[in-house]
Amino acid sequence: MNNTYYGKLIFELSTPGCIGYSLPENQWSGHTLEDLPANLLREGETILPEVDELTAVRHYTNMSNNNFGVDTGFYPLGSCTMKYNPKINEEMASLPGFTTLHPHQPEYTAQGALELYYNVQKSLSEIAGLHEFTLNPFAGAHGELTGLMVIRTYHEKRGDLKRTKIIVPDSAHGTNPASAAVCGLQIVEVKSTPDGTVDVEDLKPLLGDDIAGMMMTNPNTLGIFETKIPEIARLVHECGGLMYYDGANLNPMLGVCRPGDMGFDVMHINLHKTFSTPHGGGGPGSGPVGVRKGLEEYLPNPQVKRQEDGYFTLVNNPESLGSVSAFLGNFGIVIRAYAYLLSLGKEYIPMAGKLSVLNANYIKEHLKEYYKLPIDVLCKHEFVFDGLREEYGGDHHDPGHVTTLDVAKRLLDYGYHAPTIYFPLLFHEAMMIEPTETESKKTLDEFIDVMKKIALEARDQRELLKTAPHHTPVRRLDDVKAVKEPKFTYKML
Ligand SMILES: *Cc1c(COP(=O)(O)O)cnc(C)c1O
Fold first, then answer.
1. Strand order in the sheet with 211-217
2. Which of 195, 396, 418, 480 has the greatest number of beta carbons closer than 10 A?
3. How far is CA 124 from each of CA 52, 87, 250, 279, 438, rounded to the nearest angstrom?
4. CA-CA distance, 304 to 301, in Å (whole number)?
5. In 3D, which of 381, 379, 412, 406 has the Cα closest to residue 392?
6. What is the pLDDT of residues 248-282, one digit of tens each?
């Protein structure tokens, strides 16, 4: 692709005097700039790109074409559940009755929206085996923070102020320790055994009257089902702590088992993963938090309740931890999740869980001859390879060996998004693959073929991988610099 518009910044397309709009006459003629306070008035001319409408359209369309998305190709990004977001969800969320709602309009005029919100709370409670949910948090990490605040509030209300520590497994998603730190808790790390699950013997000495609770992800970040949960939950409860479930990726559990039944007290779910709403680039998301009976009072305000007569109302509970969001969170995302829940129904929700497990195991079994599989067990929705096998260029004693990064870059050449790489930190060459339940067998087979082809290239044409990608708009970037020194504004020379 090579044209006037491609790869240019919009300022570089600017032609002085060019205009791409025509505005109607100011109908608020009574008001002039003089009505604005002096400190809000601009002092100089604004520097904006001057382009015609079509140039603006082409610029943004070209930019969007440089992006990779679930709608453009297979996206096996582990721990992110990049599944298909059905278009019907978008249609439902675009209905004018929803898009024109105002958060301050009287409750009796928003009964339908409140009912929808309430029904999602109830559906999630049923799916998770918990008593009550809030949909207020804006993301998974925000849900973690909210859930941990529930745990803190619970201890504080009992006057138990010593509990300032939270146990987090070494395999946890990075947001777990981060949210705990934001919540003012001290993090105590518990190790994993060689089979990838929480080490109960390592856990025991950590427990005491200063423990607020323990966070667990299940299936954990390696995609493995934590089989010792009943024992762990008993130990943590015996020491007075609460059990927190990171349910960001609840896919494989759907309709099969429930965190509430396993002994968890608090959890979050990512609607923008498990319940098929779009995500990427930081939002918008939704991280509902569920609690067992006895903790519901502490959930954030406002809470949506259904009265005896069927009227839905917002309640500000005095026992609540306070408020974590403006109004009711990202309502548009909740609508999408509701559309998904209703289109699958109770009947087909369990199928989503089982297919996510089948798809992951299907890929794992086909590729384990080529890529190192450090923990060779039945996985759930995802699994982790530790780079290429020795015979395919992955021998790490060889200084020029082919790395996970090389494989990830080469995948881009074949039109696939890379898996999650170098996470979790338990292996040097981690490559975390999550196909999700929405991919067809054909897509999985094609991906498997490409991964095999790359392994053969790694063995026979190492340089090809070392210099990949060859066919993308940009090649190997300094990812760290891009994150640490992002440039959001255009500097005129
Ligand atoms: C994605 C994820 C999170 C964080 O969710 P965000 O919405 O990105 O904040 C937390 N835990 C796990 C296991 C996840 O996969």
1. 132-134, 289-291, 266-269, 242-247, 211-217, 165-169, 186-190
2. 418
3. 48, 22, 11, 19, 21
4. 9
5. 406
6. 999 999 999 999 999 999 999 999 999 999 887 66
Is the CB of 132 within 6 Å of ligand 1?
Answer: no
Output the six-digit token pair for 118.
Answer: 């309430």
Q: What is the largest CA-CA distance in the chain?
A: 79
* CATH numbers and ranges of domains, the chain: 10-66 (no CATH), 88-343 (3.40.640.10), 349-483 (3.90.1150.10)
H or E stretch covering 464: helix 462-466
Contact 256, 354 (CB under 8 A): yes
Is the minimum distance from the CB of 175 to ligand 1 under 6 angstroms?
yes
Q: Measure the CA–CA gap between 54 and 56, rounded to whole angstroms.
A: 5
Q: Kindly report the average pLDDT of the chain as a whole number.
A: 93
What ranges in 42-174 are assigned the alpha helix state H?
53-65, 87-93, 96-99, 111-128, 140-157
Whole-model pTM: value is 0.89
Q: Is any atom of ligand 1 closer than 6 Å to the C-beta of 77?
A: no
> Among candidates 247, 273, 270, 271, which has minimal Cα distance to 258?
247
Nearest to 143 by CA among 288, 250, 251: 288
Parallel, antiparallel or unpaired: strands 132-134 and 266-269? unpaired
Structure tokens at 295: 């903790």
Ranking 13-17, 233-237, 240-244, 369-373 by mean pLDDT, the lowest is: 13-17
d(CA 67, CA 473): 10
Cα–Cα distance for residue pair 487/87, rounded to 1 Å: 33
| Interacting residues of 67 by C-beta distance below 8 A, sequence separation 6+ | none
Measured between its terminal Cα atoms, the distance across the chain in Å is 27
> Would you say how long the chain is, in residues?
493
Give CA 235 to chain center in angstroms.
30
Ligand 1 mutation target, pool 77, 175, 222, 267, most atoms within 8 A of CB: 175
Q: Give phi and psi for 420, each to the nearest 5.
A: -70, 130
Ligand 1 centroid to residue 268 C-alpha, Å = 9
Atom of ligand 1 nearest to the CA of 81: 15
